[in-house]
TrEMBL record:
NCBIfam families, per the entry: 4cys_cytochr (TIGR03874)
Species whose genome carries this gene: Methylobacterium crusticola
Stored Gene3D superfamilies: Cytochrome c-like domain (1.10.760.10)
Keyword line: Heme, Iron, Metal-binding, Signal
Record's compositionally biased regions (Basic and acidic residues): 182-203
Leader sequence segment: 1-28
InterPro entries, sorted: C-typ_cyt_methanol_metab-rel, Cyt_c-like_dom, Cyt_c-like_dom_sf
Pfam families per the UniProt record, alphabetical: Cytochrome_CBB3
Disordered as annotated region, ranges: 179-203
Protein name: Cytochrome c domain-containing protein
Segments forming domain Cytochrome c: 69-174
Superkingdom classification of source: Bacteria
Length: 203
């Protein structure tokens, strides 16, 4: 009789082995220096930025697709050029969205307030998935001494359509790649950002 369980399992195991290999390959990539043309150029005179070499290495862009940069794990990341004066589009957009939707509780420039934590610190350890999950679902710390509520933004398109933008801006703040200043010079808005925005807001 045909042993079905084995017939089904074998390709699965092979697939798993391949997936493991792919993971190893990604880790080997980590060790290599990223494409020098994608490297961040920080502003040495910006005393409001506190560069964290470890995070800067981890968040380094290794890939770009239509103006959107990604780190070795494939998560969105920032890119600063022109000796620390120019940001990629998404970091700029994230700065604006953050200051429209989040700063009332989390303070200007992600610095925190008496009510809500400084996101420039939270983003040192929160993963991309955790970040998106908290924005969509909210978070509460309600006990006898405090009543702190992070609202769920899952239904708010002005936040959810720009969650990657806010993430990369706060990552740049957490790694100390960008200080407490408003971005001036920026990369042009990519066509992909226009398209994604239209689909997300309209749909
Ligand atoms: C009404 C006030 C308020 C607004 C607006 C708000 N938050 Fe929060 N947020 C909080 C509070 C309070 C907490 C802490 C909750 C807790 O301790 O469980 C929090 C926690 C978080 C955390 C988890 C931080 C950590 O260290 O665990 C993230 C991430 C976050 N907020 C992101 C955002 C973003 C991004 C926005 C804007 C889209 C935003 N928040 C808007 C009040 C707010």
């Amino acid at each position: 009789m045909l042993d079905l369980s084995k017939a089904v399992l074998r390709p699965l195991v092979a697939g798993l082995a391949l997936a493991t290999l792919a993971l190893v390959a990604v880790h080997a990539e980590d060790a290599k220096t990223a494409d020098p043309s994608l490297a961040n150029q920080l502003n040495p005179n910006d005393k409001t930025a506190e560069p964290d070499p470890k995070l800067l290495a981890k968040d380094a862009a290794v890939k770009v697709e239509d103006g959107k940069y990604a780190d070795a794990e494939g998560h969105p990341t920032f890119r600063i050029t022109d000796a620390g004066k120019k940001v990629d589009w998404y970091t700029y957009s994230g700065y604006r969205r953050y200051h429209a939707e989040c700063h009332v509780c989390h303070g200007p420039d992600g610095m925190g307030s008496t009510y809500a934590p400084g996101l420039k610190d939270s983003l040192k350890y929160l993963s991309y998935e955790e970040f998106v999950g908290i924005i969509a679902g909210g978070k509460q710390d309600v006990n006898a001494s405090s009543q702190k509520v992070m609202p769920a933004f899952g239904d708010n398109k002005n936040v959810m359509c720009y969650v990657d933008d806010i993430y990369v801006y706060l990552k740049a703040r957490a790694a100390g790649a960008w200080g407490r200043t408003r971005p001036g010079d920026k990369e042009d808005k990519p066509e992909a950002a226009r398209k994604q925005e239209k689909e997300c807001l309209g749909g």
